[in-house]
C-alpha cells in the first residue's frame, strides 16, 4: 500500500495550484534521484499526493491545443474576468470554475506501475464508480480520454469529466476536472478539448439537483484508494 496525503485547497487560483504541483513533483523526483545515487541511503518514506480544489474562472490550453479553440479575445477575457494559461499538460483547451471538482494526483508511478494508459483508465474508473453512487451510468468514449454519459450513442454522448496529465520521470501532474454544479455556459466560449460536435454536462444537470462537493470528493477518494491500492497517511 502506498502512502497518499490528501490536500484540500478549496477555491484556489490556478497559477498557485500549478506552482504547488511543481513543488511536490520536484520533491518526489529529488527523493527518487537521491535513492538511485545511493541505494543504501536511509530516506524517510515520502508521500504521494492528491490535491483537490476548485478554481476561479479560467481557461487552460494544453501542449497539443490550438489557440483557435479559444473563442474569446484577450479583451473579452478581461471583461468577463476569466484567466487564461498555456500549460504543460497534454490535451487541448478546457474550462475550470467554481462548482467543478478538480483533482491533481502527484504520484510516482514507479511505485505503482509504469503504464500511462493504465493510469488514465484507473482515473476514469474512479470517476465512473463515483458517478454510479449518484445513479449516473457513465463510461468511456472510444478514442478519447475522460468520462462520458451515453458514450454508446454518438448523438447523445456528452462529457462530464475532462482529463489532461503530464508525466516526467514517471511522476504525474495535472489531472481531472469533474463537472458538478459549475456553470456550463462558460464552455460555450471554447471548443472543449478540441471536440466541436459533443456536448458538455454536469452531475447537477444529469440528476436535476446540486450535489455536495465534499461528499463527491470523499467518494472519489475512496474509489481511488481501492483502485490504486493506496492508504491515507
Residue-averaged pLDDT: 93
Can you tell me the overall shape? globular
Low-pLDDT segments: none
Strand content: 25-35%
The amount of helix comes to 25-40%
Account of the 3D structure:
The protein has 233 residues and is of the alpha/beta class. The protein has a single domain (2-232), classed as Bira Bifunctional Protein, Domain 2 (BirA Bifunctional Protein, domain 2). It has helices spanning 14-37, 74-79, 116-132, 203-207, 213-228; strands at 2-11, 48-54, 58-61, 83-86, 93-96, 100-106, 138-139, 147-149, 158-168, 171-179, 199-200, 230-232. The strands form two sheets. Strands 1, 2, 6, 7, 8, 9, 10, 11 and 12 form a nine-stranded mixed beta sheet that branches. Helix 3 (116-132) packs across helix 5. The termini are close together. The mean pLDDT is 93.
List the helices and strands and how they pair.
Elements: E1 2-11, H1 14-37, E2 48-54, E3 58-61, H2 74-79, E4 83-86, E5 93-96, E6 100-106, H3 116-132, E7 138-139, E8 147-149, E9 158-168, E10 171-179, E11 199-200, H4 203-207, H5 213-228, E12 230-232
Helix pairs in contact: 3-5
Write a short abstract of this structure.
The protein is of the alpha/beta class and 233 residues long. The protein has helices at residues 14-37, 74-79, 116-132, 203-207, 213-228; strands spanning 2-11, 48-54, 58-61, 83-86, 93-96, 100-106, 138-139, 147-149, 158-168, 171-179, 199-200, 230-232.
Amino acid at each position: 500500500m502506498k502512502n497518499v496525503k490528501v490536500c484540500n485547497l478549496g477555491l484556489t487560483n490556478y497559477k498557485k495550484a500549478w506552482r504547488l504541483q511543481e513543488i511536490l513533483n520536484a520533491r518526489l523526483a529529488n527523493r527518487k534521484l537521491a535513492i538511485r545515487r545511493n541505494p543504501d541511503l536511509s530516506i524517510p518514506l515520502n508521500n504521494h499526493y492528491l490535491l483537490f480544489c476548485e478554481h476561479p474562472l479560467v481557461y487552460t490550453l494544453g501542449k497539443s491545443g490550438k489557440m483557435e479553440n479559444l473563442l474569446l479575445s484577450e479583451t473579452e477575457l478581461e471583461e468577463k474576468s476569466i484567466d487564461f494559461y498555456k500549460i504543460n499538460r497534454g490535451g487541448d483547451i478546457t474550462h475550470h470554475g467554481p462548482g467543478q471538482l478538480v483533482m491533481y494526483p502527484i504520484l510516482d508511478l514507479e511505485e505503482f506501475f509504469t503504464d500511462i494508459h493504465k493510469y488514465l483508465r484507473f482515473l476514469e474508473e474512479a470517476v465512473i464508480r463515483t458517478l454510479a453512487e449518484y445513479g449516473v451510468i457513465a463510461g468511456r468514449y472510444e478514442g478519447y480520454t475522460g468520462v462520458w454519459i451515453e458514450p454508446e450513442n454518438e448523438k447523445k454522448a456528452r462529457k462530464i469529466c475532462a482529463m489532461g496529465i503530464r508525466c516526467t520521470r514517471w511522476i504525474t501532474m495535472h489531472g481531472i476536472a469533474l463537472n458538478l454544479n459549475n456553470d456550463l455556459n462558460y464552455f460555450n466560449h471554447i471548443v472543449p478539448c478540441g471536440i466541436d460536435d459533443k456536448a458538455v454536462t454536469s452531475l447537477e444537470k444529469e440528476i436535476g439537483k446540486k450535489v455536495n462537493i465534499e461528499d463527491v470528493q470523499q467518494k472519489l477518494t475512496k474509489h481511488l484508494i481501492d483502485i490504486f491500492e493506496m492508504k491515507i497517511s
